[in-house]
Design goal:
Order of helices and strands of chain B: HHHHHEHHHHHH
Oligomer: heterodimer
Structural class of chain B: mainly alpha
Number of helices of chain A: 5
Radius of gyration of chain A: 15 Å
Number of strands of chain A: 1
Strand content of chain B: under 5%
Number of helices of chain B: 11
Helix content of chain A: 55-70%
Largest sheet of chain B: none
Shape of chain A: globular
Distance between the termini of chain A: 45 Å
Order of helices and strands of chain A: EHHHHH
Number of strands of chain B: 1
Radius of gyration of chain B: 24 Å
Chain lengths: 95, 218
């Protein structure tokens, strides 16, 4: 089975589409994520353990993707971690 | 946050002693009053960051303060796991963002009951997609791809299919899907990863390149 949900508006998670409105783009994204999946991928916890360093590199304008490609890959394929990373960058800019 | 409050927080932060990462760790592990001062300063830093990061969410400043309080306890409890790979304040901010975001997800989903829908509805979804493409030639290419994709999905285990579609097609947070499937986020993510690898291999086994496959969906 798959899940069916209704969504309320939420700016932090506004890239979540409404259930039932699946279109070709959503399916294309699914296929892209599958095609780009490496055999060894970080879990969410493993990504979380390293994402602070990745965020510092990003804010310093350094090549975070090159330095930490597995974190970059996980963030590209995990919507939850990507949203948290975005919020982390915003918060860190106040330090 | 109101402008006055922002100024207050800014002023409080401005009056803090400068601390190295080692200072933070030492003070947060120290007894009263050193620890209390460090906790208070860290609280101000975290509040400023969370207010900025979660400004456009249903969370109030009071909510954020509660979540920061919980995070401070967690930070102190797990301070020995800080390895110095990032600045201490970055590490603490990461832990707090994770806590706030988790709460935001809970708030967003707690009043929305999950309804189960049979996965054999997928062919119907595919049929709907096919109809939406008017160009006959493109439609043929897409139909072939969609049939392959449908077949590949059928070859997944029911749990893999359920998790994959919920996370990547319907955009439901991993943590929420995990809770609904009586598992944890890491195990769920692994389930989704294995499903993606299986689909990847099935699609590429057709001999069509990744680029051609993606172009077929354009």
């Amino acid at each position: 089975m798959v899940f069916r949900k209704n969504f309320a508006s939420d700016p932090i998670v506004d890239d979540i589409g409404e259930i039932g409105q699946m279109d070709l783009d959503a399916l294309k994204n699914l296929v892209r994520r599958c095609l780009e999946t490496p055999n060894d991928e970080l879990t969410c916890d493993e990504c979380l353990a390293q994402v602070d360093r990745y965020a510092e590199l990003t804010l310093a304008g350094l090549s975070a993707d090159e330095a930490m490609p597995r974190v970059a890959q996980h963030l590209a394929s995990c919507p939850d971690c990507r949203r948290e990373f975005t919020a982390l960058l915003v918060a860190l800019q106040t330090l | 946050m109101e402008r006055d409050d922002m100024q207050r927080a800014s002023l409080e932060a401005g009056s803090m002693p400068e601390r190295s990462d080692a200072d933070w760790v030492a003070e947060l592990k120290a007894g009263v009053p050193q620890q209390a001062m460090a906790i208070q300063d860290l609280r101000v830093i975290l509040l400023r960051g969370m207010i900025r990061a979660f400004a456009n969410t249903p969370l109030t400043e009071a909510d954020l303060e509660d979540l920061i309080q919980d995070s401070l306890l967690r930070i102190i409890e797990h301070i020995d796991t800080y390895r110095g790979e990032a600045r201490f304040t970055t590490w603490a901010t990461k832990i707090t963002v994770h806590a706030v975001y988790s709460e935001l997800r809970r708030m967003r989903w707690r009043d929305v009951p999950l309804e189960a829908e049979r996965s054999d509805d997928f062919p119907a979804l595919i049929a709907r997609l096919s109809i939406s493409t008017p160009d006959p030639e493109q439609r043929t290419v897409q139909d072939d791809l969609l049939n392959t994709l449908g077949q590949a999905l059928k070859e997944l285990s029911p749990r893999q299919r359920e998790a994959l579609l919920a996370v990547h097609l319907q955009g439901i947070p991993v943590a929420e899907v995990a809770a609904s499937m009586d598992t944890n986020s890491n195990a769920l993510y692994k389930l989704v990863h294995d499903a993606r690898v299986k689909l990847r291999d099935t699609l590429l086994a057709t001999g069509i390149s990744a680029e051609e496959i993606l172009n077929g969906f354009s």
